[in-house]
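Bumping with the actual sequence this time:
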Amino acid sequence: MIHRPLPTAADPASTDLLALANNPVVWFCAFGVFAVIFVQTFIYMKAARRAGPEIGMETREVMGAYRAGAVASVGPSLAVLLVAIALLALFGTPAVLVRIGLIGSAAAETASAGIAANSVGATLGGPDYTQQVFALAFIVMSLSGAMWMLATLILTPILKRGSSSLARVNPAAMAIIPCAALLGAFSMLTIAELPKPAVHAVTVGVSAAVMAGCLFLARTLKAHWLKEWALGIAIVVALFTAYFAHTL
């Protein structure tokens, strides 16, 4: 019988990242993060079901909102999965699970890790990417994610007070501002892709056409379920389009 050696103690000069990345303490932190997420999800869903009748929503409408949210999350989840697979070799499984389970941007935090590695003369994934550099990069990534959460914790009550004051002065503004903010945010994300190589523009055009087509069919055929699936369908089609357009 072949016995595989257990991960040894951390060696700052070693490039065996898995011996450090798969440390039980890191796994424990990863499971703790997901436990908190599951508890929060249960609390929010329970609160939504209670609040539904108070604002005139029937149980059927609340369940429809749950389905719409679940379906709409499929596309973004696939994108997150692809990013996670790409990061496994750099940060290991538990570290990647922690990063994708928290508020933050994989691109921004990977850039933070790259800056941290460059500050000590190393490169992410390079021959000089030692356990010591990995630990430094992971700390910087964790601090980056913590700042996202801290900013949310501090700014949310402030913004809530501001929105409540604005709603008392002009209720119509509170119906317009959130929609305008969402349109502006997604428009900027879309516009940022257009100057890039043609694959990006083709993907944007196809996803927009699929989304518009799904909404048109949903209205024409009175198929409300199609509205729930429209975003997920558009994202999946866009992913396949980007893949085939890139390989051509």
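The tokens above came from a reply further down the thread. Residues 170-248 form one domain.
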